[in-house]
Write a structure and sequence with these properties.
- With 220 residues, this protein is of the alpha/beta class.
- The protein folds into two domains: 117 residues, Rossmann fold (3-Layer(aba) Sandwich), CATH 3.40.50.720; 85 residues, 2-Layer Sandwich (Alpha-Beta Plaits).
- Strands 3-2-1-4-5-6 form a six-stranded parallel β-sheet, sandwiched between helices.
- β9 and β10 form a beta hairpin.
């Protein structure tokens, strides 16, 4: 997979290092040539000293051949512009954008070319809630401009789903159970899988089905 990362800050370079280590082809675009010169010897990926907010720079870097773009600069406005150009001008299949300021989260959607937005404060909140919340629906990750979410529910005593098979739960058509974690073991859900108290159930849901899912797994 070929991945282009805009921004050579601590976030961008950390992502690049991980992806490169996993065998992916990585391209980093950074507008500060001095920073590129300093970092190039430390990471064996393709470096381009260019402004990722300029169409000509993206074209010269070969953006049309990229599978994924990661807009990881420290400026939300730049990340939105990069996302929009990647999607509209170069039809990049997957665009992931960093949200620096939570108040700007609402902008990071498909209208701006963003497939997945990542907000560190929101992720930390979700991890805290996931660690302490039993019997509550917790949003872990947002996809597709906010229309779909990965959510988690740890079934509490009295959950209406306890003792019920996946097939008999009546999960809405626009939601699906993707995994069940039971006693630190991953269970791939099947129709005859019986849910139990203490199970961590992970689901992919849309906004329209989230309420129904909560009622089925948590109750009123």
């Amino acid at each position: 997979m070929k991945v282009a990362i805009a921004g050579a800050g601590s976030v961008g370079t950390a992502i690049a290092k991980d992806l490169h280590g996993n065998g992916h082809e990585v391209l980093i675009l950074e507008q500060d040539p001095d920073l590129v010169t300093r970092l190039r010897p430390t990471l064996d990926v393709t470096w381009v000293a260019a402004d990722a907010c300029e169409v000509s720079s993206l074209d010269a870097a070969g953006m049309a051949t990229v599978d994924v773009v990661v807009a990881a600069t420290g400026d939300d406005e730049d990340n939105l512009v990069i996302s929009l150009l990647a999607k509209q001008e170069f039809a990049v299949p997957r665009v992931v954008a960093r949200v620096n300021h939570p108040k700007n989260q609402w902008l990071f959607n498909q209208s701006w070319g963003v497939d997945v937005s990542v907000s560190t404060p929101q992720l930390m909140t979700a991890l805290v809630e996931e660690a302490v919340s039993v019997g509550s629906l917790v949003r872990l990750l947002q996809f597709e401009g906010g229309t779909a979410h990965l959510v988690e529910v740890t079934l509490a005593d009295g959950s209406p789903a306890a003792g019920i098979s996946v097939a008999d739960l009546g999960i809405p058509r626009d939601a699906t159970i993707v995994a069940v974690v039971r006693d630190d073991r991953l269970v791939v859900p099947r129709g005859d899988t019986i849910l139990d108290v203490g199970d961590e159930v992970l689901l992919l849901v849309t906004g329209d089905s989230e309420t129904a899912v909560q009622q089925l797994l948590v109750g009123q």
